[in-house]
């Protein structure tokens, strides 16, 4: 099998080389694809009040409107990533474009909450088609690792821009149009991307030996859906013992175990799990999970701190968080040079340590505004996080065989989503555990009101407003002080997770391995020979 795979590398290389003159144009098309998916993940957040007022959804319907897109997208990444390896990555990407455009139109014109939920689910399906395809096509178009590292840096910088611009774009559109405009903005971009992508993007496939494992793909999709749903419910404050939380988690975990065992027995697995035996691949995936686990919940907590403790408006909050995005963009653009100079191990370790230092610095935040501290902390946080994710993503994608680029990209994106969901649940639980006790014994506040105030800072302010007078003021001060205390504890826990990631990153290669011989050897399905025989040329 190894010889067959190595032989198959040459035609793909020639196909990539034929389009070498316009590979940077291809990168632009792929980045536009990613920008749309990243925008749609956050653009709806600011439109939730307008959607609530117009469609009158119930509490559960509103939750599904917000969560169904990332939930469906995360659960289908492996399915469509591996399907693209079989039937063609460009084909899956173009189908994703078309579905994304149609679903955007349905969402914009939705007259009921049920229609909007269905449209958001279809957007998730389109996003799952687009995300792994962009990375796997990028892997094929840029066979040289040094150029690919630069391309991944630009790709990741665009992802940071999309996540940050989403709320700002949504707010601008809501000021001038109705809430459906946040979806209509996707349609003209898709109308341009579809024909341009068809003309410019090269088609590529992986191995086509044996049938595609339909049962395995569906098992992975349902299993991931259950796990991500359970994790999201935990992140929303639902009790672990709740059947609506516990059942999805258990069923999803059982299906994923079945999926892993099934892939190990099949002669032509959907995902070659032997990739995880390679230290660089498994370590990179673990670093992605840990980075998101430690940090994604901090964004939500930081937004609450800026608005509820410091009293900033949503627009002012977005502007305060903007330096984090700019720093992440800078790290993405500088990542290729850093990777060549320092190598994956030192780069990812440095990113984790810098992010941990930024998190510890932010523990100096208190009840009063300190703009300089926040600016320094957010800049270091953004640069460190993007440095970590860039090094991990690049190492993971370069370590995977070229014919399984779609599956590897799907594993990376799934790890990102799972890490984010688990991080919200874990850090949210830490925050609540540190916050609630401070409100249990405020003088003059009845126990029922104290329990309600212990749910969140926003609810504590509502209870304080209802009580009024000196007792209400005391409850408000106690809630604010308890929130700041909980924030400090959560930051320290996050810093510990980040330092754990720095230790994990010591398993990554010391140098960035380049060269044609190395690329062909890594393209083989069989594991590499012992390390002494597998050393490629090293780029300074």
From TrEMBL:
What is the membrane topology noted in the UniProt record heading this document? Multi-pass membrane protein
Provide the GO MF annotations for this entry.
transmembrane transporter activity
Q: Where are the transmembrane segments?
A: 21-39, 59-80, 92-111, 117-138, 150-170, 176-200, 212-231, 243-260, 281-306, 318-336, 348-367, 373-393, 486-506
- Predominant location: membrane
- Major facilitator superfamily (MFS) profile domain ranges (all copies): 26-513
State where the protein is found. Answer: Cell membrane
Keywords tagged on the record: Antibiotic resistance, Cell membrane, Membrane, Transmembrane, Transmembrane helix, Transport
Under Pfam families, the record lists: MFS_1
Note down the stretches annotated as region Disordered: 519-540
GO CC annotations, alphabetized:
plasma membrane
The record ties this protein, via InterPro entries, to: MFS, MFS_dom, MFS_trans_sf
> According to the lineage, what is the superkingdom?
Bacteria
Its BP terms in the Gene Ontology are:
response to antibiotic
Protein's name in the database: Transporter
Per the UniProt entry, what species is this protein from, by scientific name?
Streptomyces griseochromogenes
